[in-house]
Sequence to fold (790 residues):
Amino acid sequence: MFKGTKNILMVGVGGQGIIRASDILSLVLMEAGYDVKKSEVHGMAQRGGCVSSDIRFGEKVYSPLSKIGDVDILVSFEKMETLRYLGYVKDNGIIIVSDEKVYPPSVALGDEKYPENIEAVMKTFFAEVKIVSAVKIAEYAGDRRMANTVMLGVLSSFIDVGVEEWKKILRNEFSNKLVERNINAFEAGRNS
Amino acid sequence: MKSLLSGNEAIARGAYECGVTFASAYPGTPSTEITQELSRYDGVYAEWAPNEKVALEVAVGAALAGAKAMAVMKHVGVNVAADPLFTVSYTGTNGGLVIVTADDPSMHSSQNEQDNRNYAKFAKIPMLEPSDSDEARRFIKIAFEISQSFDTPVFLRTTTRVSHSKSVAELETPVSPDTKLKITKNPSKYVMVPAKARERRVVVEKRIDALRNFSESFGENKVEIRSTKFGIITAGMPFNYAKEAFPEFSFLKLGMVWPLPEKLIRDFASRIETLYVVEELDPFFEDQIKAMGIHVTGKKIFPYTNEFDPGIIEKSIRGPSRERKIFHVPDLPARPPNLCPGCPHRGLFYVLGKLKAFVTGDIGCYTLSFMKPLEGLDSCICMGASIGMAHGMSKALKEEGRGKIVGVIGDSTFIHSGITGLLNMAYNRSDAVIVICDNRTTAMTGMQDHPGTGRTLQGAAAAELDLQALAHALGIDNVRVINPFDIKTSRNIIKEELKREGPSLVISRAPCALLKSNSAKGQPLEVILDACTGCKSCLGLGCPAISWKLLEDIPEVVKKKSGKQEGAAFIDTTLCNGCTLCQQLCKAQAIKKVKNHV
Fold:
């Protein structure tokens, strides 16, 4: 096992399935023998606000929150939200971004503009930026709501846990009806 | 067996493992899941009480009958329960009584940031504070042991970060609960008239002395010496942050946060040159430790406000040392929480926002309607305050206030602490109008039932409070029911009631859009581009399903209805559930049901 802890930060907007994805990730890591802590904020964030979830794993984890500048992998479910959290990522950190855009109220009302050149901004600061058409891939796999499973698939290739261990947890976590679809979505993400 | 549990799930699990059979609570973030989880275990009776005061009194009764009982609430809930709290400290508990207080540093979902460790000292009740899920599971058991051995209520304090973070917990086999309970009369212990209370008052002080002694050797007050130069005294979640930031320091981690183990603290301090106290919110330890004559550094360098994280502790002690890249990112639009598409509050607050009235508000999802574009609410203090405040304003303003004061309150909140306020309005003949936003659930905390829904915590059928009959019984003669999805009628009825002398109650009744039982979800609507004049009326609703695009950003060619038209509205049909509010506002009749919707 590596020394210290690895830190993942999942961010996006309420309703995108971030909490569910971070739960699944944490279970996978626990089953793989790591100590795991994860944290998120419930409550008012449910109503369309920003959602973020820290997942930290290693031999022994104390804090469920990462330090600013210590995040190894930022997984962002909404394009613009990525920028809000760039400061959390290590200099050599990895950024995985879904290209989905969810307009905040001020943008929907036409009072503010959705920022442009998000990709360029990210790539100015970070060498490894992976942009994923998570919603499209999920739609192709059967349901756009599985975009979170697609993102887990993408993330899985950056984490040292066997693919079968991921699938084992996915099988436990989804009802029979949804298991195969989600495994397809996961694999599509992993191979994207 | 290992399991990944949230702090709240772990508290429920621990309670079950040690034979808790009774819990009463009012939902409140971040405490809600504890009672929900507990209710799923065999042999546990759990209920939603109308408010925290009732929840605690119910738990006191169960404890006096010999049960292991819990009352669960968020930090501000303890304010509501404070009356019984301070006196049950005198009577003691017979069975076991633990009060869980879930505090909310950073106010993620609260109106204030009070530090409820102060209640332990104030009410003379010992308090434990876990730092992760496995400790939460173990500490609730210890809390019951202390309650029973010292005949005292015990606090278990969590914070949002403990309650809502997940970590690995060991599961143990539950013990069988004590089922042979019986009534034992003991008036000199349980009847707190002055003569008896004076006797118990002495018992309380003796008990605190005994607890102080206990805390000196309490196994969860842990000393870890790694350095003689630097040491940290801390508890709860901040322990994790400090440990992460300064693993090389010595630590005194307090599992019991009141009363403090003075000898243990003195001994720790004598072995360390420089001592820090790391605690979120108030200098609760710091003040007490300084009063012992021990030199420590605390709030001089650490923030008073908001929750900590490892970075804050590192920066406070070491100063900003690590060089970080400066990220030049564009200013990002904020993403405030919003009422859901199809929310019944939207129509009501659209109407209220257009009135020239002061709207006293309350605690619930609808509080969000103070924001643009609805701007339909002007105050929020605590649960129930809207009604008292509306009455106070109307009395103070006299004639000037007539027709200008509306108080709004949710159904669950009204039952929690609005009923007495409404009684006061009837009794003292108020001129204000009260609106109960009756969405048939406790929505903000995640759809909990309450006495108005006719369902218990377990979903069983229950007596359903009749709000109209209640209002009449309180002495409110003018009671109207509106459908907030009908803008015109709602506006007219509220205006009529505002004109009327004397108090009025308007019940704005429509189920929460997120309720599973809500079958009223209609066909989604869409904007007919060729009819939309770009007047933006529909945008005034602040519905997440409606957005605005400039004509040049629209791929299709749009026929301009006037030279002034700059853009058009769009409806996201995956979000829209056909509440029709926007359709009612559209003067161009450009909003229609989606054809062929499955």
The first helix of chain A runs from residue 18 to 31. The mean pLDDT of chain A is 93. The longest strand of chain A covers residues 89-98.
